[in-house]
């Protein structure tokens, strides 16, 4: 039984405000279709099929960024996934939005403009403060219920995620329900595993990896490191790797901030850590080339992936595991030259008869990119920050508001 009220508790035929997360890559002004549209379409379709009047809220980018665009294209893409028209209104809670909401018929779907185009949305405030905002106070009276399905922003205390649950009967959508149950219970699932528990951790932030190791070190047997954290842990051991070179500016500041903690982890948990033994870089011809850790004599180039010796080192550990959890890609998989590490480890996980949970958002996208079968994994999280918060034991404020409202 879920910790909050779900769509199973929602009486059909109501006017429902549903928050989803369709934040997507934007290339040359064109919003890119991705698995988020597919996942969230399930909740939207279910609500429409139950004769609700469905009004969708979502965000895209942040003010000042190139990805901060209207949701008009999102409505068109979502419509294709839902299999029903999704109308769009270029307004969040003004007269045009209110008129469009009030004119909806049962089973129809409307998408409002980007929530982050209203000043009330982004300030981090308490749920009580957000509930008193003009945004919430104007829209809430037009609805019978609020559904939050945006698990990937459940760690954000924004008006659309924490304000409306205090003003309306509140429910969790299917993505929120599934993601919360899987991700919040990672430690419990690891403890229940009969055999070896392994975690693949990569990405580009060493603090994330440190938080995961600190929170799950008591239940995970092997941490397989890649990405920038894999380089920084090797730097802490004295290797000439994990430094900023060329245009890179991601490593030195991170290392200065986390050096002592990394060294403490290396001292205290060395038997649980598996570190890269080779790395991939751009060769003279621009193609992928690899070099063994012991052959790196000076910090002269950037490294973009783990090498095949590391893949061969990590793969048997994966195949011998009863439970495997993934946080972050081990290389820059967006570039096909440097996707081998991420692709081959995910393939090995999919082929292993084990409990497998894969996240966050970028890593989930790599499964689709490389044609791997989503059915080979028990759960694929489309969340990034919220997935990390769950793994590191931090509160998901928007999920907690739903739980509190269910308790009341």
What is the molecular shape?
elongated
Class by SSE composition: alpha/beta
Q: In which range does the helix fraction lie? A: 25-40%
Biggest sheet record: 6 strands, parallel
Number of strand elements: 17
User: What Rg do the Cα atoms give?
Assistant: 22 Å
The number of distinct structural domains comes to 2
The number of helical segments is 16
Q: How are the strands of the largest sheet arranged?
A: 5-6-4-1-7-8
Reported by name, the CATH topology of the largest domain is Rossmann fold
CATH domain class of the largest domain: Alpha Beta
Q: Which range does the strand content fall in? A: 15-25%
Give a description of the structure.
With 408 residues, the chain is an alpha/beta fold. It has 2 domains: 7-180 and 397-407, Rossmann fold (3-Layer(aba) Sandwich); 185-377, Rossmann fold. The protein contains 16 helices and 17 strands. It has helices at 35-49, 72-82, 95-102, 127-131, 134-139, 159-163, 174-184, 186-192, 206-216, 227-236, 252-268, 308-319, 340-351, 361-369, 385-391, 397-407; strands at residues 15-19, 26-27, 30-31, 53-57, 86-88, 109-111, 145-148, 170-172, 197-201, 222-225, 273-274, 278-282, 288-292, 305-306, 323-327, 355-359, 379-380. It has a 6-stranded parallel sheet with strand order 5-6-4-1-7-8, sandwiched between helices. Helix 3 (95-102) links the parallel strand 5 (86-88) and strand 6 (109-111). Helix 1 (35-49) packs across helix 2 (72-82) and helix 12 packs parallel to helix 13. It is elongated.
